[in-house]
Amino acid sequence: MRLASVVALLTLSVAGAVSPVALPVPEIQNPVALTAVTHVNGQVRLAWTEKAANFQLHAAVLSKNGWEQQGGVLNEDPTFNALQLMSRTGPDGRWWLGWAEDAGIAHVDSWLMRVWDGQSWQVKVSAVRRNLSDAGRSRSFDVMKNGVPTLLWTDLAVPGAWAASVRPLRWDGKTWLPDAVLSDIKFAGFAPDVRVGPGGLRTVVFLEGNYASMNVVVMRETLPDRWERLRPPLNRTPGSFTTQPRLNLTPFGQTVVAWIEGGDEDPDRVFVSRWNGRAWQRLGGALSAGNEMAETLALALGHDGQPRAAWLADGKLRAAQWTGSHWEALTLPGTRNVTGVSLSEDGEFLAASVNGKLHLWNWP
Predict the structure, then answer these.
(1) Which of 87, 184, 292, 296 lies 20 to 30 Å from 192, alpha-carbon distance?
(2) Is Signal among this UniProt entry's keywords (predicted)?
């Protein structure tokens, strides 16, 4: 990576950059694919999928005695694949996991959510089961103030819609009910990410467009089930290709969004913007350097409220933090063939699979 490229394209500084501290990981015999790391009340929680006969989901917490497994294989059906792993922390501090599970054949898909009660993984809500093409397999969840999950879904069957649409699903105590569609049904809507704010209202980001060009759209609740758009779309270049939108909220409910965007002449790069209460504020330029192609993005907010991002670039792990004026790179060891990058919600821990081996770092 050339320093001139970093300065000119990224506003990304390596001066004074910090180095991560490698931590021990659970003993795992099989190649690891996905990770989800969480840090709550001083406890590090880690979930991952590993490739045995199929992709199996496991979870563990780091105690003074080392890693303690939380249950065995978490798959609902041990012969199915656990995919699209996601971790959330409920308002009571409980650990939630969400994941997709399929039989490895087309058009078979379930979305499951489980919560750890200190002894076992509990089923508080039923799975959402759909016969879906790959286009419909994007969703996100968070946990409401009452301890019940809220789910954002990509619906392929909205009457009159041009393509897929983004809508919330609401748990009524017995089943999942669809709420009003959020995306414009004249366009495709997918890849949602949702967070519940400190007041219990939701904010969501998703992609909307004709697939070749997609706008990064953010909507927030002003009252329960009443939504407004935070205009304009976030794309740095109107009509550009975008993917992987990620959203987080500060303790005061301020919205921060990261996404990957590419153009006809430019590679896919990471960008971040923050809502200041009246308009979107760009946080520097692109984070990814030179001709590197960014993918698989994770976003977190440090205790100071400043964003931290981690992503893959041509199979290598990259990470940076916003100082308030520029992006500062995290000095990482040389990595290749990386998958499943994740950040804890406070940005203090970074996990990934490197050549199939699970790695975990403390980000000081």
Answers:
(1) 292
(2) yes
- Residue-range definition of the domain harbouring residue 155: 137-233
Please give the single-letter amino acid code of residue 127: A
Give the residue among 233, 223, 237 at the shortest CA–CA distance from 279: 233
Half-sphere exposure of 27 (CA within 13 A, CB side): 2
* Dist CA 76 CA 249 (whole Å): 31
Q: Does residue 339 lie in a domain region?
A: no
Longest pairwise C-alpha distance within the chain: 58
Rounded CA separation 47/69 (Å): 10
**CA nearest 11: which of 284, 259, 325?**
284
Token output for 317: 């792990």
The token duo for 275 is 């809502």
What's the structural domain count of the chain?
1
What mean pLDDT value characterizes the chain? Answer: 91
Residue 58 falls within a domain, yes or no?
no
Q: Cα–Cα distance between 204 and 79 in angstroms, integer?
A: 33
Answer whether residue 270 is part of any domain. Answer: no
d(CA 210, CA 222): 28
Structure tokens at 25: 């990981």
Rounded to whole angstroms, how far apart are CA atoms 13 and 173? 50
Identify residue 292 by its one-letter amino acid code: E
User: Whose structure tokens read 């105690």?
Assistant: 63
Parts of the chain with a pLDDT under 50 = 1-11, 14-15
Contact assessment for residue 343 and residue 300, using Cβ atoms and an 8 Å cutoff: yes
* Rounded Cα gap, residues 83 and 130, in angstroms: 15
Please state, in angstroms and as integers, the Cα–Cα distance from residue 262 to each residue in 1, 61, 147, 196, 337, following that order. Answer: 19, 38, 38, 29, 22
Based on its alpha-carbon atoms, the radius of gyration of the chain, rounded to whole angstroms, reads: 19
Cβ atoms of residues 179 and 219 within 8 Å: no
**Residue (of 222, 226, 230, 223) closest to 205 by Cα position:** 230
pLDDT at 9: 34
This prediction has a pTM of 0.93
The answer to whether residues 226 and 202 touch, using CB atoms and an 8 Å cutoff, is: no
Classify residue 162: in a domain, yes or no: yes
Name the residue type at position 105.
I
